[in-house]
Structures
1.
Amino acid sequence: MSIQNNKYVINLDVDGGDNAPSSVLNGAELYLKDNQNVRFNLYGRKSIIDFHIKNLPLLLNFSNIIDCEGVIDGNLKPTEAMKKEFRHSSLAKSISSLKNQPLEATVSSGNTGAMMAYSKVFLRTVENISRPAIASLFPSKNHPVCFLDLGANSECDENNLYDFAIMGSIYYQILFPKSTCKVSLLNIGSEELKGNTIIQKTHELLKKSKLINYNGFIEANNITDTENHIIVTDGFTGNIALKTA
Amino acid sequence: MSIQNNKYVINLDVDGGDNAPSSVLNGAELYLKDNQNVRFNLYGRKSIIDFHIKNLPLLLNFSNIIDCEGVIDGNLKPTEAMKKEFRHSSLAKSISSLKNQPLEATVSSGNTGAMMAYSKVFLRTVENISRPAIASLFPSKNHPVCFLDLGANSECDENNLYDFAIMGSIYYQILFPKSTCKVSLLNIGSEELKGNTIIQKTHELLKKSKLINYNGFIEANNITDTENHIIVTDGFTGNIALKTA
């Protein structure tokens, strides 16, 4: 995130997610009540934002409005979202702006598939990383646990999972610099022979890696009670675990 | 289950599971305190059962002991379990006995992989069903929900998942004869396009099926609040969902 006048700059996809735009704008106002270290770029339909923001005095002070056209529906396919007519939506514009402002961040609770598609096409991944992943911090008894992928990739091979282990480790070390970053792989048992072919292949890759502090398999009942810092899984399984929890 | 003198006959794998054999024998005694409609066949090492059963007066009255040799460790691979030296174990003998007593049942909390291997080799599956599955009833707000596969098959194709839908429906209708047996497929979203290739192929098979009352996708956050009666998934995902819950 860039710091302008000691402020972080966050792009908000005002049209994205359930109960948008009011939930997004009210959430930003709520945040500003406790923290004024942020400036928000509000991406959305200006006339609608103008209508709501009248009653949100802090947001009025700490934001810019960037007028957008068209709304990305939650059911829109990622391939559809790439069409010209959606390129001026709040989601598309708030993400593509990061290309020239690489230290800012975009927050959206809108269509996940479209968000991943825009991110991949507009921003591209880091060299040697083929797919982005969705990560979140889970509470655990010992420390927060970075859990990924939570739904960006419903099919993953061992190389994707290996990449997720690296991305998770780097992300965790940025958030908690003193951490040792132990990585574990989500599996249906802790014994060596457990799991499917891709899990077994990933296990071999991680064991050999000198970049990762690999700690073996973890079972889902230990997610909130683990010595590990990063838990790696494919986006299908991760999403099921997240929503079951 | 067969009924001899108005009693169900249950085979217990006394050597299987954590804290065996005492947990298994104490559990049987506990059951008999409230229900005496059962006769247990206790499969295990006779000398050890004899030692424990002295203090379990009901079990002493309502059971037979079948002497077995060797114990199946929790870490033993299914292929290892098939070796001659384990064929006289409590798990192997309690399952193989069902071949000649098809109306009895075996209960084991031991090595799942070995249990599945013995079941498949000794008892075989029903015609046209290639793989057994592990099913359990989950509580939901409306009615119990049959959830399968919970871990027998860590890799499944669309035909296996279709078979699970049929097996689940039949099992549910035996337990709750008046039910309509709505089947849903566990997925990471409820929209048509969601999920991986196998999920999409299974969705097509289930939509076309005249044997199944298919109700579409279900997300993991709705497992305990569903209109459906059967939830189908592969054994990897099912096991992760079960252990996360």
2.
Amino acid sequence: MNALVLKTDTFQLENVITPTPQSNQALVKIHYAALNHRDQWIRDGQYAKIQLPAILGSDACGEVIAVAEQNNNHWIGKNVVINPNIDWGNNLHFQQKEYQILGMPSQGTLAEYIVVNIDRLCEKPNYLLDEQAAALPLAGMTAYNALFNKGNVQKHTNVLISGVGGGVAQFAFLFAIAVGANVFVTSSKQAVIDECKKLGAQDGANYTEKDAIKNMAKANGGFDVIIDSACGDGMNELIATLKPTGKFVFYGATRGLPKDLNMRAIFWNHLQLLGSTMGSDTDFKNMIALCNEYQIIPIIDKVFEFDKAVAAFDRMKDGNQFGKIIVKIQ
Amino acid sequence: MNALVLKTDTFQLENVITPTPQSNQALVKIHYAALNHRDQWIRDGQYAKIQLPAILGSDACGEVIAVAEQNNNHWIGKNVVINPNIDWGNNLHFQQKEYQILGMPSQGTLAEYIVVNIDRLCEKPNYLLDEQAAALPLAGMTAYNALFNKGNVQKHTNVLISGVGGGVAQFAFLFAIAVGANVFVTSSKQAVIDECKKLGAQDGANYTEKDAIKNMAKANGGFDVIIDSACGDGMNELIATLKPTGKFVFYGATRGLPKDLNMRAIFWNHLQLLGSTMGSDTDFKNMIALCNEYQIIPIIDKVFEFDKAVAAFDRMKDGNQFGKIIVKIQ
């Protein structure tokens, strides 16, 4: 099969051996894969425990074409998405030490075929196109955990999604809109803010403009919850927009570690800083169920042909995308 | 009456007019007052909205000697402690904007008499000496909120009380021991650690010794909850000792704001940083009830005569105390 193989500093689309399903496994023919920041970080060598060569990719939509056991035959021919968790463990609230994400060191989805355990298969939501369904798994699950388990976002919650252009952020945005929260966004791009307003955002602020976030917060009574993956020195500005007892939920720190985080504002206002990463298998199932219930359509930035997959990575690196970057495999 | 009056940069024990109880108020003859860091910070000009001259002091134990209305006569002759909250408001989880702490701008407890609203009176726990009861109010309430409402500390919770010599920290320590938590402490003084072990601590670490906290955590499976008021650059070391989903509860930042707080460790381990300050009137009542139930004896550092009250402040400033610093008024 063809696969995009990451070697030291370079990708190569090459022919590798197609894997064979073993006990309790299925072979999936991949139609579409989606990229995550994780993939780009691994490409850049900025990730823990990198093992090369590697086939990256945590997200896929495809068709089951073989299984190891007859009693799993009912999966054959089904369109599926793949749960990207490997060995999350039994605790709903955190991953065990053995936890891995699909793709590096295990074979990922940027290949024509993949073998996964049967219990990683999930029927593709019927209402979605294949390329839309491929966008869901890792980012959707991460957003679900941050938004609902950590943020407890519900109808009428005032929630700010910062940097809404990101892959996880867009799902946090779509899910929050779906459940009837009052959703606000930040972005550095007016076009993204405008698009979010069309999709149901109450308002948006350009975070490159001084006081824009503060003024939006003030006009709306402050936020109950902020969903963030940037951290960095912008944290103090965001924290200042939270209501007393408000929650700053974060699943990344793309802008680095904050200097002089205003701990006094945090304790005086009884604020909560809640870390989150990925989600349990239960979160994955609940996320898919939520999508089915509200017919949530993932925002797709662009679909790249498989032989242009490196350009897809470059687009992720540039950070100008709004929505998921998809690779059409076959 | 005699009162310790703080003027610009100087205390003066002087004769001031004894206040008179108005509607729904009581006049309390103060037997003992206790100091809090807040008082020393106000003395040093390091507090918001300082109004001078001021009579400081948030804690007192005394006797009700007059009330404004006959239907409050049953209070007369009763030994009481005073709830130091003024206008906390209706929300159990945070104070309203009008909230004040007893003592600056209102008259505080470092005076022979004080007038407070009847609903601020609380019968002194019978099992305590007056000087012990005077130690309870502000610090006990603050510890109660941090430990139980924020930290959810229960029987068998692994809880670390950092800087256990402090006024609030000692109550967090005593309350955690009372409810059957597995309690660990840090201090810069071996004598304090030894005393805490006698009082029921599982173990203690000298935070000036490299890796002492880390090793203690490792030997005990990590902490579920840390109760801290230091913050500063030691935070990363403390956070690293938390179990996944562990809580870092803090009610102060005496060591300043942290540089380069390790947000990645926080989100990867689903940690929670929970700010807390003071407590509601309900917390005050629950704290007193807890003390009565478990017959908790506050740790007293030293009792100063009223005419040596400035020396009491100096002791607070030096930071070598273990337990509450008390001033005998009359």
